[in-house]
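Postdoc handover notes: sequence design on the structure in folder B. Input tokens:
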């Protein structure tokens, strides 16, 4: 069995494979097996790989089931102690694998870890998808060390400490393979977006830790499949956020959180409307109805999860703090408001 497998999920991403796969090969070949999991691409990705990199293993998924199902289907065919889920639009750097594997080897309770994610286009800044590790507030809004909503911090070494976080980015996620399969992997119904937050939350409910390791560094393009200003992305983010909250919140918090989220989502819809984002407003409404119609299905999943009051949740409202109190830096948040 291979100790570590880097698995890159590809869908019509020949341009990214051509640009970024060389760095993955250069800095990973001695430490891991490299695998391309193709989500039924309709471009010439497969032909390009077979011609240019015949030594790289390709797993061909029968359909494009999205990020979640794509990885779940592919990883059933990969035998390794550690999986590294890596986006195709990431440039890795020298020695990016060993520090994280060493950290995870040393503690059986560490289930998942992510490297420092920096922006490929602005290398001195953190990248939106994961920055220096992810958190959520008590109402389910995700943010990161180094990124609160759209505000990205410049990396000046302020987050160069190994630390426990709430969620690790799926753009570059190291995970122990046995735990991935034991707890069901990513939720297929998410398709894409926030599936890694749900997965990390389920692991935390079982007493495992999610970590950030700054000694590993990668550069992410971001928005490779869906650009940030896209109503489909808005729909998935709002719907999936409700999915993960319903599945993982303890019963005594469910009603209060969902009641306030209805109000906050109404405010978000008004904001989209005033900015001319009619498609985004429609996406929010559609996301709500999609969630309501799927409650029975998600309730079955909820019954199989042990909901607990877990650590690293920001016990305040990041929306209020950022947009009303004008807090832009993670370091300005009160540390004692994070659950222990």
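Designed sequence:
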């Amino acid at each position: 069995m291979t100790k570590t497998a880097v698995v890159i999920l590809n869908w019509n991403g020949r341009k990214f494979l051509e640009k970024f796969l060389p760095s993955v090969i250069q800095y990973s070949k001695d430490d891991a097996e490299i695998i391309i999991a193709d989500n039924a691409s309709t471009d010439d990705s497969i032909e390009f790989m077979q011609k240019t990199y015949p030594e790289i293993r390709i797993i061909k998924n029968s359909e494009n089931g999205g990020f979640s199902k794509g990885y779940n289907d592919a990883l059933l065919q990969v035998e390794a102690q550690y999986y590294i889920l890596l986006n195709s639009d990431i440039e890795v750097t020298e020695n990016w694998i060993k520090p994280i594997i060493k950290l995870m080897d040393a503690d059986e309770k560490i289930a998942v870890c992510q490297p420092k994610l920096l922006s490929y286009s602005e290398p001195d800044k953190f990248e939106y998808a994961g920055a220096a590790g992810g958190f959520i507030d008590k109402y389910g809004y995700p943010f990161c060390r180094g990124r609160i909503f759209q505000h990205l911090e410049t990396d000046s070494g302020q987050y160069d400490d190994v630390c426990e976080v709430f969620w690790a980015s799926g753009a570059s996620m190291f995970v122990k393979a046995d735990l991935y399969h034991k707890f069901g992997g990513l939720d297929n119904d998410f398709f894409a977006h926030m599936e890694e937050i749900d997965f990390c939350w389920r692991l935390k409910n079982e007493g495992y830790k999610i970590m950030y390791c700054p000694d590993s560094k990668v550069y992410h393009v971001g928005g490779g499949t869906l650009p940030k200003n896209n109503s489909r992305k808005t729909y998935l983010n709002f719907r999936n956020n409700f999915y993960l909250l319903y599945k993982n919140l303890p019963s005594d918090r469910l009603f209060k959180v969902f009641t306030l989220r209805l109000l906050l989502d109404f405010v978000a819809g008004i904001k989209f409307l005033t900015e001319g984002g009619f498609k985004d407003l429609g996406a929010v409404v559609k996301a709500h109805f999609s969630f309501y119609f799927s409650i029975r299905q998600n309730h079955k999943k909820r019954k199989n999860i042990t909901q607990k009051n877990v650590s690293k949740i920001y016990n305040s409202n990041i929306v209020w703090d950022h947009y009303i109190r004008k807090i832009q830096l993670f370091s300005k948040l009160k540390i004692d408001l994070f659950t222990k």
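Context for whoever picks this up: Residues 231-309 form one domain. Don't rerun without checking with the PI first.
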